[in-house]
TrEMBL record:
Its cofactor is pyridoxal 5'-phosphate. Pyridoxal 5'-phosphate binds at G105, A106, F138, D223, E224, V225, Q226, T281. This is Acetylornithine aminotransferase. Homodimer. Its EC number is 2.6.1.11. The lineage of its organism: Bacteria, Pseudomonadati, Pseudomonadota, Gammaproteobacteria, Oceanospirillales. Belongs to the class-III pyridoxal-phosphate-dependent aminotransferase family. ArgD subfamily. One of its GO terms (molecular function) is N2-acetyl-L-ornithine:2-oxoglutarate 5-aminotransferase activity. It catalyses: N(2)-acetyl-L-ornithine + 2-oxoglutarate = N-acetyl-L-glutamate 5-semialdehyde + L-glutamate. Pathway: Amino-acid biosynthesis; L-arginine biosynthesis; N(2)-acetyl-L-ornithine from L-glutamate: step 4/4. Pfam families: Aminotran_3. It comes from the Bacteria. It is an enzyme of class 2 (transferase). GO terms for cellular component: cytoplasm.
Length: 406
């Protein structure tokens, strides 16, 4: 007999590092979820930009069932067909020549940062080890990745953290010029900052970063954990920046919720991850790879990618219309279906209130920091769900605005 569990069970048995909502979803289909009480929600959160093809996508369900009946795990003592097929597709569809599989975005980034240092060590010696990242960036929760990330709160209490890491302002090329040197082994950036507030890289800035990396013989690492796999309207966001990185990391949507991540790189750079230098027990396991291959096959089509750009405009138009009525946002920005609405200065710190009231109305959204409401729905969210979702969001905005103005 299955034991009944509730939200209170979390507080009894789980570490207190999360503060999950009161609702416990038990079923999902497409862009809709149902909780234990049977209440329905429209999902504009997508598991934090993960369920890019929605919940229980029939092709992915069939792929999982088929692979589950064949082979789950081997370890990297042997390779497997799904991993090889997925790696082939990733190299065929991107700038990269080589692929390393992991289980998450943090692991993919950890591998990327290790590779950057190893490459510099191999080619220039141990003194070239500094990594430059940007304030408000987010690259994961391991000790190395929180150190490269540009948000001090994630490092607090875990010091001493790894050294040789510097930070500067995003979209400020003069700040980077002042920091970069011949000791720099890599510059790490998100082509659009996600957790930092949905801030796209200026194209001129991105091009100048690439040029500075070339000038100082440093690698350019793009963290596309959140922006990749169709989220911005191209398979990877770097395609829209006009520059090509040396290393790119991808996860989140890659498995549509099944844990999988990857680091991809050029042939020349990849050589430094020689035999025995890095590894992952589960990385590239047949189950994850089979599902990720199916995700790539569906997402990397004109129908889906063009649909992302169309849906982007629907989201922007809906948010603009709501803002004209309630005057709560000072900026609406983003790329594809990674959209942020920043609240006005007088509402600073209250993005979470919009989220809470949206949930009460049957809509799931996110925040990106204390001032930005974040929308990361399925890339194939039906237009009818967008319309109804924003009707629910407008009711949440009306309630939030009224409460905050009391």
């Amino acid at each position: 007999m299955t034991e009944q569990v509730t939200r209170a069970t979390f507080d009894e048995v789980m570490f207190p590092n999360y503060a999950p909502a009161a609702i416990i979803p038990v079923r999902g289909e497409g862009s809709r979820l149902w909780d234990q009480e049977g209440k329905e929600y429209i999902d504009f959160a997508g598991g934090i930009a993960v369920t890019a093809l929605g919940h229980s996508h029939p092709v992915l369900v069939d792929t999982m069932r088929e692979q589950a009946g064949k082979l789950w795990h081997l370890s990297n003592v042997m390779t497997n067909e799904p991993a090889l097929r997925l790696a082939q597709k990733l190299t065929q569809k991107t700038f990269a020549d080589r692929v390393f599989f992991a289980n998450s975005g943090a692991e993919a980034n950890e591998a990327a940062f290790k590779l950057a240092r190893r490459y510099a060590f191999d080619h220039f010696g141990p003194e070239k080890n500094e990594i430059i990242s940007f304030y408000q960036s987010f690259h994961g929760r391991t000790l190395f990745t929180v150190s490269v990330g540009g948000q001090a709160k994630y490092k607090e209490g875990f010091e001493p953290t790894p050294g040789g890491i510097k930070h500067c302002a995003y979209n400020d090329i003069e700040a980077l010029k002042a920091l970069i040197s011949d000791k720099t082994c890599a510059v790490v950036m998100e082509p659009i900052q996600g957790e930092g507030g949905i801030i796209p890289a200026d194209k001129v800035f991105a091009k100048a970063v690439r040029e500075l990396c070339d000038e100082h013989k440093a690698l350019l690492v793009f963290d596309e954990v959140q922006s990749g796999v169709g989220r911005t309207g191209t398979l990877y966001a770097y395609e829209q920046t006009g520059v090509t990185p040396d290393i790119l990391t991808t996860a989140k949507a890659l498995g549509n919720g099944f844990p999988v991540g990857a680091m991809i790189a050029t042939e020349e750079v990849a050589k430094s991850l020689a035999f025995g230098t890095h590894g992952s027990t589960y990385g590239g396991n047949p189950m994850a790879a089979a599902i990720a291959e199916a995700v790539i096959d569906i997402v990397d089509t004109p129908e889906v990618l063009e649909g992302v750009n169309k849906r982007h405009q629907l989201f922007v138009d809906a948010l603009t219309a709501i803002n004209e009525k309630y005057d709560v946002f000072k900026d609406i920005r983003g790329m594809g279906l990674l959209v942020g609405a920043e609240v006005k200065d007088e509402l600073a710190g209250h993005a979470k209130d919009f989220l809470a009231n949206a949930a009460q109305e049957g809509l799931l959204v996110l925040v990106a920091g204390p001032n930005v409401i974040r929308f990361t729905p399925s890339l194939i969210v039906p237009e009818a769900d967008i319309k109804e979702g924003f009707e629910r969001f407008e009711r949440a905005v009306a309630k939030t605005a009224a409460d905050l103005k009391k």
